[in-house]
Amino acid sequence: MPLPDRDCLPDTGATSRAAFAMEHVSKRYGSVLALDDISLAFAAGSTTALIGSSGSGKSTVLRLLLGLEWPDQGCVRVDGQVLERSAVLALRRRVGYLTQDGGLFPHLTALGNLALLPRHLGWNAQRIRQRAQELAALTHLSPAVLERYPAELSGGQRQRVALMRGLMLDPDALLLDEPLGALDPIVRHELQDELKIIFDQLGKTVIVVTHDLAEAVWFADRLVLVRGGAVVQDGRFEDLRDRPASAFVTHFVQAQRRLPERSP
Amino acid sequence: MKRLLLVCGVLLLLPAWLQAEPVRIGSKQFTESVILGEVARISARDVGVDAVHERELGGTSILWSALQHGDIDVYAEYTGTITHELLKGVAPDADIATLRAKLKPLGIGITDSLGFNNTYAIGMRADRAAQLHIRRISDLLAQPGLRFGFSNEFMDRADGWPGLRQRYGLPQTQVRGLDHTLSYRAVASGAVDAIDLYSTDAEIPYYHLRTLEDDRHYFPRYEAVYLYRLSLEHSAPAVVTALRQLAGRIDEDAMRRMNARVKLQGIKDGVVAADFLGVRADADGVGFWSRLLQRSVEHVKLVVLSLGLAIVLAIPLGILAARLQRLGQVVLGLTGILQTVPSLAMFVFMIPLFGIGTWPAVAALFFYSLLPIVRNTYAGLVGIAPELRESAAALGLPPGVRLREVELPMAMRSILAGVKIAAVINVGTATLAALIGAGGYGQPILTGIRLDDIGLILEGAVPAALLALLVQGVFEGIERWLTPRGLRIEARL
Question: Which domains does chain B have, with CATH numbers?
């Protein structure tokens, strides 16, 4: 396995000031090229949506930023520092990560899930409970739900608990991989509102992966459209709509079902 | 200086301490050997030496290696077996003086003949033999369709069936291995036509069998003798003298009568041996319940020790196998191979390593317990959804904490199922441990088979079955108790 910093240049100005950056990163799974020489930077405190079809490589970007995968080529920087294996545990504790299925551990109650990492870091029960209550208020979750096991929670409650687990240590960043992908439309709509408020309120660096353009536009000013492991266009929704970089961008923007208008 | 004194003191006390060790007498797994074991034990007792009888340890090879390793001090053997099986390069008809000289370098002593020749013979039901006009073994040549049922030992040993077939040119092809004690009923019921016998067997007149004349003098003489460790001449000379004095005192008739009293009349071997020696038998103070208690303790001890050791090794092995896939395949393969070793063979393999008694049995059961636990630990860990494993990693938990707090609890149900399987298998397999002197519920089963006593067999089989059920129940309780509640809720949905 190549060292992560093999192709990394010393400090290169712009990207070194970003919270997360990827420089010429390629990643291959067997014969599939997931990322093809991709470079991206995410400024601290900004909210970015990675959009694209499934299999475009957008989830791989998040996994590389967390050190769950390592690039075959190129380098990953966090706060300007090249990411190394020894720094991974510390990094992950400063980043909340939320996936489509929530990743809650079925053998622990919701509170047990929230407590896992803080307890390992020496928090006492009272501090854990207090923090859990704060976050329950933030995510509009009834505190009674915290005593239940994941199997006893609804899909929306599960994603709320998973989000709380990511926020327990008050991390600098939130990486969300299709966080609402498995929810029914009503709950999804509700959580879109809540997440938007949370993003705005907390001022964290947020990267959210979604294949739903409307959701992406709702969350973020900056959209990054990924296809075949490369960036097709990086800009605001208006840029994608009015100045598409390629026919694919137009195609992607227009591939939205419109509801029939009420007849006059 | 003080230390030197201490060492000297210990060295001086050591012989006395050795002296205090009881003389250990072994016996093979058939009535005559057990009676001769009792005769030796009671003779030792009568000269004031503490002696224990390790009954029904198994076949010749087990007794011989136990004697050589010092796990036992004395057992009754036959000269034919010594010349054919135990010593290399000895004439088949060598006399006892020759054997004594050959055994001496091995540290083994031999008494003179006890007075009877218990040779192998071939027997048929008298009416069937008369009908076919068979009196001698060579008469069998004319009846190639006859079915033989031979004891497993006779089937395999050089001086048994292979040699007999060669000497007489016997044409029969339907030859089955049977337990010797069952073969009488097989021949009596007509399931087989001829069986191997020992000439002092009590059953010969009882089942109206005819022993066929060995007209080509194939079977060597099987004079009964005691073999003993020569070290006994220093540690317990009185016992050696007592054993030597038994020489010439038991003739074939006397032996057949003792066999018949034990086997056919159901009198205790200790009583029969004491009657023969003209002394009082041990007080029979051991009632059913205390016997059962003692066997239960022995049996549970075997299961608990072997299972405990297996858990300590197998769970880490299973974790290792799940972590390192390639090594995992090797570990699973090796434990799988262990599982294919026939259980009796596994017990016997342990004897050269651990002698006889509890520890070799624990070792054998330990090896049997590994596979279910390793495999279930492995399967439980590998079966965890990759998303959940990654979710634990993404939280920033170090690998050790992930294993302890997330992966093992989620695999707990599978691991416990493995331990339960191992425990139940162990309870059953441990009944074989009696064969190598570890006691337990197998002891009455062994004796019951030997004496054809269903009651005695049940005295071991029923508690073993109950214990298996109990273990099953206890482990199901533990499973419920240790399986995290969240997983049980998840399983219900």
Answer: 21-115+222-277 (3.40.190.10), 120-211 (3.40.190.120), 288-492 (1.10.3720.10)
Distance CA B249, CA B245 (A): 8
Q: Nearest-CA residue of chain A relative to B490?
A: A151
Residue numbers in A near B413 (CB within 8 A): none
> Could you tell me if B211 and B199 are in contact, meaning their C-beta atoms sit under 8 angstroms apart?
yes
**Interchain CB contacts (distance < 8 Å): A and B:** 71
Question: Which chain A residues contact residue B487 at CB under 8 A?
Answer: 106-107
Strands A47-51 and A222-227: parallel
What pLDDT digit, counting tens, does each position of B432-491 carry?
Answer: 888 887 889 998 898 888 777 888 899 999 999 999 999 999 988 888 888 888 787 776
In chain A, what residues touch B397 (CB-CB under 8 Å)?
Answer: 116-117, 120
Q: Measuring CA to CA, how many Å separate B298 from each of A236, A258, B430?
A: 79, 79, 10
Tell me whether residues A93 and B490 touch, CB distance under 8 A: no
Q: Do B486 and A68 touch (CB under 8 A)?
A: no
Looking at residue B32, its amino acid is E
Range name among A75-89, A90-104, B14-28, B357-371 with the lowest pLDDT average: B14-28
- Residues of chain B with C-beta less than 8 angstroms from the C-beta of A113: none
Element (H, E) at A28: strand A20-29
The domain defined by A1-94+173-252 folds into Rossmann fold (3.40.50)
**pLDDT, tens digit, 9 for 90 and up, residues A3-44:** 444 556 665 555 557 889 999 999 988 888 888 999 999 998
CA distance B388 to B380: 13
- A181 in reach of chain B (CB within 8 A): no
Instruction: Write the pLDDT tens digit of every residue in A143-199.
Output: 889 999 999 998 889 999 999 999 999 999 999 999 888 888 888 888 898 889 888
Residues of chain A with CATH 3.40.50.300: 1-94+173-252
In Å, how far is A105's CA from the nearest CA of chain B? 7
Cβ pair A104:B405 closer than 8 A: no
Give B25-45 pLDDT, tens digit per residue: 999 988 899 999 999 999 998
Classify the C-alpha dihedral A151-A152-A157-A163 as positive or negative: negative
- Residues of chain B with Cβ-Cβ distance to A176 below 8 Å are none
* ipTM score: 0.86
Q: Please indicate whether, in this complex, the C-beta atoms of B490 and A151 are within 8 angstroms of each other.
A: yes
